[in-house]
Amino acid sequence: MKRIVPLTALAAGICLQCVGALAAPVGTVLFSQSGSQIVGANGVPRAAQRGDVLQHGEKLKTPSGGIAQVLMLDGSILGVRPDTELRFEPPVGNAPTAVSLLQGSVRAIASELMDSKRPSAMTLMSGQATLRLKGGDVESTVVDEKQRRGVDAGSYNRLITGDASIGKGSLVEPLSPRQVSFVGSTALAPVTLTTVSPDLFGSKLALPVGGALDTSKTTILSTSDKPVLVPLTSTVLNTTSLGTVPKTTVVLQPLPPPPPKIVILAPPVTLQPPRLPIVTCTLTRC
């Protein structure tokens, strides 16, 4: 005899599956400053604190002057800068975890930079641009019409180190190191910009204040307390001292500018042939 399942029970089961998918963990808050919030899938906000587990369907928001960091399940790290809103999208099949940058600036550091054997499995949706990390360290900023401040509205992305690609629709191309790629309206493909505002990626807000850090390198404190040194060129955090930075927090410092290339021009050297000894011969008759 076939078992008849009421439609109400079937619908309830489907709803529970949907809730379970939305409630799947996606990452952990490593660090957050006062005013940072996690907004649940139901729209209810709560204060973001270190150790909070983020779920699919939730948002992370930082206030003006506040920052946060997130350790993703794949080992990648997100440095969330002030006035930024991220949404952790529900999973779609076997697709990589997608994080949407709705506004503000974020720095995404792929897991390969901490562990070469741990491939990153995260996609960053920055406005209309799609960023895929391949061992890359990327800065991304979304500017809307209300925040233009002299720049075009759209998505700005810069590769600091490693490899990453940027796509829009079916067009996917690699990001060039230290070049800014811009994606605007639906009619534009990614374009490389020659000049950008110096504070476009929140660099001024993210500079350390009073920190006695070595500016010649970047220190990444891993969960095993084993430091990993990676040369980078930009910042994520603006902590007032190392004592306020918890373990597993990435502290990124700017490198000094490279020394100018000095070319020394020397006069050409003329080689003189060696002098041969003078031999005197005396002929005598026998």
* Sheet of most strands: 15 strands, mixed
Assigned CATH class of the domain at 25-196: Mainly Beta
Q: Please report which band the strand proportion falls in: under 5%, 5-15%, 15-25%, 25-35%, 35-45% or over 45%.
A: 25-35%
CATH architecture of the domain at 25-196: Sandwich
Task: Report the span from N to C terminus.
Answer: 141 Å
The low-pLDDT segments are 7-22, 204-256
Task: State the helical fraction.
Answer: under 10%
Secondary-structure element pattern, one letter each:
HEEEEEEEEEEEEEEEEEE
The rough form would be described as: elongated
Radius of gyration, rounded? 28 Å
Q: What fold name goes in the CATH topology slot of the domain at 25-196? A: Jelly Rolls
Structural class: mainly beta
The strand count comes to: 18
Q: What is the residue-mean pLDDT, rounded to a whole number?
A: 74
Number of helices: 1
Q: Overview of this structure, please?
A:
With 286 residues, the protein is mostly beta strands. It has a domain of 172 residues: Jelly Rolls, CATH 2.60.120.1440. It contains 1 helix and 18 strands. The strands form 2 sheets. It has a 15-stranded mixed sheet that branches. Strands 17-16-18 form a 3-stranded antiparallel sheet, with no helix packed on it. A hairpin with a 5-residue loop joins β2 and β3.
